[in-house]
Amino acid sequence: MTHLKAIQRPSIFVSVAAFCEPHLQWTVEQLFSKAAYPERIFVGLVDQSDELNPVWLDKLSTRKQINYVGLSPVDSKGVSWARSIAFSLYNDQDYLLQIDSHTLFDEAWDESLVGQLERLKNSHAKPLISTYPPGFKFDSQGRAVADEPAKSDEIFRIDRDPGSELTAQRAVLRFRVFKEHSELDHVSGCHLAAGFLFTLGRFVVDVPYDPYLYFRGEEQSLSLRAHAKGYQVFHPKHRLIPLYHLYQPVGQQHAGQHWRPDLEAKRQSEFGWLQQRSNERIQALYSPGSDLGVYGLDSPEHLESFCRLSKIDYLGRT
Q: 238 versus 170: which is more confidently predicted?
């Protein structure tokens, strides 16, 4: 028994929340086919779709490694709500990877991320690798092609979008990637990206997803609460990011938008109300003395230290 445990590879829980996603099958198949050790991959999949329990899912040889929940897109309450359900499918795996449902992977992505995290653990007890990954597109023949195929030594650092400001009534900010040169493979940061984060599996328990958030503010909640639980965000170099994201053109409607007019017409809870509730929760989270239970902070000192580290004055809202 001891010998068998010694050769067993650490497991990875992959959280995937999909909403009317045309590329879900492709993403899930790659997730396994491009892993160096597919037997250690376990997926928590929340599929918000008109075609629930799709035929392709049961045909996968890895079907027993996928914990599936199917939900009507009309009943959906947004991405954070769906990701909180995905987190509930966690089963004590060693690592957590959270991705969007339209993700392209490099070969041996699992080996790369596990190796990076283990090296970072030499200097920090709870490292968390995250950034907005490089993009990809489908060419005229349907092949996935990376926007930036030449892997560079640029760090993909996340920081506040200069055009996004705090106000007394609004603590929600926009963030973006800033590419910069560094001698290090990873630089420490404060802000994480929900579409690509890799860390210890216990993060699911330490930082449970707030189901009452909607869209904007999701990453700010995770970033502050991860900081409060002792996690350190690290932004990697481009060449160390083993996956790519399918970015949609700004202002263009697409199937994966929760607030699509055709779906909104069928719902009881309009997205405007859901986003307003979400904004109020972020306002409360970033205000000393607020009580959000397990989705809040244990001490106001955590907010103060996060303000110092991030150089964003959430306390003064300036």
A: 238
Rounded to an integer, what distance in angstroms lies between the CA atom of residue 39 and that of residue 42?
8
Distance CA 314, CA 110 (A): 36
Tokens of 61: 């040889």
Q: pTM higher than 0.90, yes or no?
A: yes
Contact partners, residue 256, CB within 8 Å, separation at least 6: 19, 20, 21, 101, 102, 248
Report angle CA 127, 130, 135 to the nearest 5 degrees: 160
270: its two tokens: 């309009």
| CB contact at 8 A, 248 and 254 | yes
Task: Label residue 5 by pLDDT band (50, 70, 90).
Answer: very low
How far, in Å, CA of 96 to CA of 94, rounded?
7
pLDDT per residue as tens digits for the range 107-131: 999 999 999 999 999 999 999 999 9
Which pLDDT tens digit goes with each residue over 178-195?
A: 999 999 999 999 999 999
Distance CA 61, CA 65 (A): 9
Gap between the Cα atoms of 306 and 98, Å rounded: 23
